[in-house]
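in:
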């Protein structure tokens, strides 16, 4: 009985511990759930801050302001352009030495929020309007300057800085009052405009040269499809290769001529043989012709001695002397 009492006492003491374990598990689950909610809300706060900062940068870029501490992006740079103005040097200019202004000079000044002139890439379109005596504005000339040409015209001086452009007249002005309008377009698509009234010296009509005219290349017209279907071209037969003629054998060469038969020559006399001796009295010679006196007319002074020939002289030499 004492043993049973001990068991009951131990069971009674273990009941509060078991109840405490069961009550701690829901508490831990609730704490973990609240921690995950806190992490999620913190991420949402950071995301909202990033979106807010991006929107502020977009608004400032549209206004032409550079946000402090922004990271430079070489592919999408933000230019601090606030306004556009035409400098005091804008007006007529004489470059040929003739009476009157033969060109229009434009000084373009892009300015930031502090009013400083800054060099910003872009393109510009300049239009000159002629103000008549009635006050109407008639378009006179228009010039379009590309970004590369505009960048080369930048001038940075002590008194004036900006894009200095000299534009020859396309049409000679008839009035000395002009209005110059400049439209400056940045690479990001923003457009700024400025205008200024100027007074020029109208060139003398007799001194005017032919104005510069821009030549435009008209592209070739695109051929329109014909409403009538054209017959499909008949394909040409493939060329048949010609047979190569057989090579003919070379004809037999002509027989070589037989060598000529040698001529029989008498055998040479032995070296010891001598020619036969001459007959006594010398060689037999034909009788000499009878000596006839030369006719009278041909007789010269002196005694007639006959005719002596080379043959007779040779025979007389070869004839042996009489003993």
């Amino acid at each position: 009985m004492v043993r049973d009492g001990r068991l009951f006492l131990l069971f009674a003491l273990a009941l509060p511990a078991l109840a405490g374990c069961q009550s701690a598990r829901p508490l831990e689950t609730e704490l973990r759930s609240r921690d995950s909610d806190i992490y999620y809300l913190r991420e949402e706060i950071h995301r909202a801050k990033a979106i807010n900062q991006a929107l502020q940068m977009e608004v400032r870029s549209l206004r032409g302001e550079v946000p402090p501490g922004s990271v430079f992006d070489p592919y999408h740079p933000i230019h601090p352009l606030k306004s556009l103005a035409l400098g005091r040097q804008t007006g007529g200019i004489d470059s040929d030495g003739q009476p009157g202004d033969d060109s229009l000079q434009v000084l373009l000044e892009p300015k930031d929020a502090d009013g400083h002139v800054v060099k910003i890439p872009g393109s510009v379109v300049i239009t000159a309007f002629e103000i008549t005596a009635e006050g109407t504005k008639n378009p006179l000339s228009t010039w379009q300057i590309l970004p590369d040409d505009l960048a080369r015209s930048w001038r940075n001086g002590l008194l004036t800085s900006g894009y200095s452009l000299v534009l020859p007249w396309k049409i000679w002005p008839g009035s000395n009052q002009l209005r110059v309008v400049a439209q400056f377009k940045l690479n990001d698509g923003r457009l700024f405009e400025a205008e200024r009234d100027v007074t020029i010296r109208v060139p003398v009509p007799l001194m005017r040269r032919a104005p510069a005219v821009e030549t435009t290349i008209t592209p070739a017209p695109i051929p329109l499809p014909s409403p009538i279907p054209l017959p499909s071209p008949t394909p040409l037969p493939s060329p048949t290769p010609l047979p190569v003629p057989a090579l003919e054998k070379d004809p037999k060469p002509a027989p070589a001529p037989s060598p000529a038969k040698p001529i029989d020559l008498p055998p040479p006399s032995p070296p010891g043989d001598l020619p036969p001796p001459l007959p006594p009295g010398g060689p037999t010679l034909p009788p000499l012709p009878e000596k006839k006196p030369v006719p009278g007319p041909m007789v010269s002074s002196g005694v007639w001695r006959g005719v002596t020939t080379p043959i007779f002289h040779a025979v007389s030499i070869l004839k042996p002397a009489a003993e």
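note: The mean pLDDT is 74.
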